[in-house]
């Protein structure tokens, strides 16, 4: 990466971070206007309203920071010799396998075998995590991760790695996008973040968890609500919380709440 491009990416990254932080601050102020106090503990209040948490919560104290992702423009030059690059479009590389990779029925689960293929055959494959298998389209999807946590973009609608299978359950082709991810430390270091139960309390105090609800998902991830600006994108550490059929994202640093329909 030459100095001119590096300087441009650096400037864009911090401009996006400033916009992101301003947006989060506004959301936090809005959410704080809807609040009430109670002497009872959160667990007691949830129990009184018949609200149940059906997943395990993260108990350890975590630290986190904002991160930036820059599209890896040289990805096509890193593809192994026994694979053919068919096209490069919209920052995705489409790759054809010279030797299809079989997924064996009755052996390990499909997603375990697919993950092994990704680790062994795909550039930076260890940084991807299984998402889901679309049996109708015969496509297996993966997220990219940062330090083991999912990196997600609500606006994109497209996961960064897709494996295409044929009717014989063989991987014949894949499409890949890869972000070079770096931490951003506005305060010079990683910050302590709110716990998963505190994130649930944020939703409860904002009256976003109705009586008789089930909290079905509590997951730490990195999430962006903004489209990439050129090659650069900024992500915030978020608690992804499922309440019945609704998904909320709670910023793990400042507690701001976003609703995903």
Automatic annotation (TrEMBL):
Pfam families: YycI. InterPro entries: YycI-like (IPR018604). Gene3D superfamilies: YycH protein, domain 3-like (2.40.128.690). It comes from the Bacteria. Residues 32-253 form the Regulatory protein YycH-like domain. GO terms for cellular component: membrane. This is Regulatory protein YycH-like domain-containing protein.
